[in-house]
Amino acid sequence: MYRFSSVYQSPKGSPIRALYKHLSEPGMISFAGGYPDPQLFDVQGLGAASERAFANSKACLEYGPTEGTSGLKEALVQLMQQRGVHTRPENLIVTTGSQQAFDLVLRVLVEKGDSVFVEQPTYSTNIQAVQAHQAQLTAVPVTAEGMDVQALAHMLESASAQGKTPKLLYTIPNFSNPSGATLSLERRMRLLQLAVQYQVVLVEDDPYGGLRFAGEAVPSLMALASQVPGAQNWVVHMSSLSKIVAPGLRVGWAVAPEEILKRCSVAKQSADVGSSPWIQGIAAEYLASGRLDTHLAHICAAYGAKCRALAQGLRQELGDAIRFHEPSGGMFVWARLTGDITAAELLTHAIARGVMFVPGAGFQADGTDDFTLRLSFASPTLEEVAQGCKRLGEAMAAARAAKNKQAQPA
Fold first, then answer.
1. Is residue 255 a contact partner of residue 236, using CB atoms and an 8 Å limit?
2. Where are the beta strands (DSSP E) in 151-273?
3. Residue 239 CB: number of other CB atoms within 10 A?
4. Whole-number pLDDT of residue 189
5. May I ask the CATH class of domain 53-288?
6. CATH number of 8-41+294-404
């Protein structure tokens, strides 16, 4: 028998990817994956950027610097400045998606048995990532305003008293995956204060911040860190072009304190030597073209319309059987079933009727919540959103009928 490492003796895969086998079924409408709408990709702009990048074919076909090509790093510095973060190329590392950025941070900071705090619910793949490093996961509750920092303060006080202060805290402050919640400005400032007080690295994952379609933008934790003495030493900011341009680019980046970043660079050397210079060239040319702002306005308008259609459809077809908070951006609606039908039971009947979503248990650090679900409105068309909600209503009726039948005496 193979002698697998303890982490991979009985590995658990992504609850989202486990549903992909149903995507090929005829007529299936998916609210499951967090995929951007491919009809909204700026194909023309990316095609032109690709041609310009390949004009320097020798450079883009050769190995590149581990930390990223100078052209892309300069373009990302400019993008971060537009977002209120003033940094330099040497404080930024290019990664193969922000997922790799998180893996690198875990590699350089977390050892077996260390404490890591995550908001709950949170991105399922990063729960897996923390577990792969054999850390002790602790869940911090989330409300409609994002992470409950009052609860966090009590948790940090207790952990510190026991000598178990976490190494890091992972948060998605803008339109979180899966909750759709955005951390309020007041809570962001308090979170930065707590990071300094307890010397906890805040890992800010921000792939969705550019997808706001309602309300006013809130500065990132990294942008606000200069207002809290010492906080700039405790924030790692990660972002990506996957949700705002195209996931196929696999371009992400991290901005971090120097001592963390230089260790991430060494860790990346052993992971992949460096991200593709060819793809980095395309991304750099696209950002330099000035098309991103127009593209963002286009996709935000489209996602806003889809989000409103999903919210209307859920209210119309499921009524008081479901509760949810309608987000101001991003790609997700997080919902809770109010009766005795679990998300898993509803999913069985939903798939039979040609519609999918992801049960919420996979987004929980403890995996125990049976009545929540995540629905992504990004990829389906408006017509599919309406039809998908109708099918969910039919699935709920079928699930209730099945439940009632089981309850009847033989």
1. yes
2. 168-171, 201-205, 235-240, 252-255
3. 30
4. 98
5. alpha beta
6. 3.90.1150.10
- Answer yes or no: are the C-beta atoms of 127 and 108 closer than 8 Å: no
- pLDDT value for 11: 75
Give the residue carrying structure tokens 């706001």: 212
- 253 in Cβ contact with 239 (< 8 Å): yes
d(CA 68, CA 121): 32
Token pair for 360: 């919420």
The residues that bridge with 171 in the sheet, in sequence order, are 204
**Residue 384 reports pLDDT greater than 90:** yes
Question: Which of 325, 337, 351, 355 is closest to 400 using CA atoms?
Answer: 337
- Tokens describing residue 6: 């303890």
> d(Cα 32, Cα 53) in Å, to the nearest integer?
34
Query: Whole-model pTM above 0.85?
Result: yes
pLDDT band of 315, cuts 50, 70, 90: very high
Q: Are 160 and 148 in contact (CB under 8 A)?
A: no
Number of H helices and number of E strands within the chain? 13, 14
Instruction: Answer whether residue 13 shows pLDDT above 70.
Output: no
- Give DSSP secondary structure letters for 92-141: EEEESHHHHHHHHHHHHH--TT-EEEEEES--HHHHHHHHHTT-EEEEEE
Rg of the chain, C-alpha, whole Å: 22
Tokens of 224: 């606000």
Domain segments of the chain: what residues?
8-41+294-404, 53-288
How far apart, in Å, are the Cα atoms of 266 and each of 99, 225, 276?
17, 26, 17
How far apart (Å, rounded) are the C-alpha atoms in residues 311 and 324?
8
Name the one residue in this structure whose structure tokens are 């010397």. Answer: 199
Average pLDDT estimate for 307-325? 97
Work out the pLDDT band at 1, boundaries 50, 70, 90: confident
Burial class, 310, CB count within 10 angstroms (exposed 0-12 / middle 13-18 / buried 19+): buried
The pLDDT tens digits for 48-91 are 999 999 998 888 999 999 999 999 999 999 999 999 999 999 99
